[in-house]
UniProtKB/TrEMBL annotation:
The protein, known as: Class I SAM-dependent methyltransferase
EC numbers, comma separated: 2.1.1.222, 2.1.1.64
Residue ranges with Acidic residues bias: 176-190
Keyword Methyltransferase: yes
Keyword Transferase: yes
GO biological process terms held by the UniProt record: methylation
Region described as Disordered: 163-197
Enzyme kind, highest EC tier: transferase
Domain Methyltransferase span(s) in chain numbering: 37-135
Record GO terms (molecular function): 2-polyprenyl-6-hydroxyphenol methylase activity; 3-demethylubiquinol 3-O-methyltransferase activity
Keywords carried by this UniProt record: Methyltransferase, Transferase
A Pfam cross-reference name: Methyltransf_25
Record organism: Streptomyces bikiniensis
């Protein structure tokens, strides 16, 4: 098995890099002493960010072996042993059988993960089954409304919001809001990217037995998907001042009663 070189690890980011956006940290809250599962985790920067914020045990799952090997190497750079940070190579739909524990205080997913999965209900059932009683699932995804707008200005509706077919010529992790922490070969679950309407996602989580605590919409994007977006001090991209805005990201917290 290939072990990542120092150069490859640097290409994936620094082990001590904070990969979390401000609103994610605020909405998830204090993770001190809690267990957390991140799926899919890409090269693990998000998982390691939660570990550095005090999570007692974090697990990352990703279908890409190279991404998982890089994540393990980055964890070693932080002197995190496997009982603090573990990484598993497996598809998202197989998570319940692949991860070391059967329930976690927090299941974190997003960053474009749903765009690479064709079956949202199956995803919701898998993720919900891994939430411990009293725990919650947290999702932060690119808003599908943004996919319906033109790529130049984000001001005109040019695509059908409700189309669920894969986008033409869309390779894995190549969409404008693809998470830079993801691995370009990690798309074994999807067969292309597609948009999932917000209502479909929230309904799937509710049907899987979780209680929806909130659905928030944000005017910030992780990447400059439209040429008019401007980078702010928090590292996110937003429309210029005075320009009508649309949601670029949404987040959901869904809990399992104790």
């Amino acid at each position: 098995m290939h072990s990542p070189t120092p150069e490859e690890r640097r290409g994936a980011g620094r082990a001590d890099e904070d990969a979390l956006r401000d609103f994610e940290v605020a909405e998830v809250g204090d993770v001190t002493g809690r267990t957390l599962l991140h799926l899919p985790c890409g090269t693990g920067l998000g998982v390691l960010s939660w570990a550095r914020r005090g999570a007692a045990h974090v697990v990352g799952l990703d279908p890409s072996e190279p991404a998982v090997e890089t994540a393990r190497a980055l964890a070693a750079d932080l002197s995190l042993t496997q009982d603090r940070a573990a990484f598993v190579a497996a598809g998202v739909y197989d998570a319940a059988e692949a991860v070391p524990d059967r329930a976690y205080d927090i299941v974190h997913t997003g960053g474009g993960a749903l765009r690479r999965l064709p079956d949202v209900e199956r995803w919701a059932e898998t993720a919900a089954a891994l939430v411990a009683p009293g725990g919650f699932l947290y999702l932060a995804e690119p808003h599908p409304l943004a996919d319906a707008l033109d790529d130049e200005t984000g001001s005109r509706v040019v695509h059908d919001y409700f189309v669920r077919d894969p986008w033409p010529d869309a390779g894995p992790d190549t969409g404008p809001d693809a998470d830079p922490d993801s691995d370009p070969d990690s798309d074994s679950d999807s067969g292309g990217e597609r948009a999932h309407p917000v209502g479909e996602v929230v309904t799937a989580l509710a049907r899987a037995g979780l209680r929806i605590d909130f659905l928030h919409e944000h005017d910030a994007a992780l990447l400059p998907r439209y040429g008019v977006l401007r980078r702010h001090e928090d590292g996110c991209y937003r429309f210029p001042a005075g320009r009508p805005r649309v949601p670029l990201t949404y987040s959901v917290k869904a809990s399992r009663p104790a």
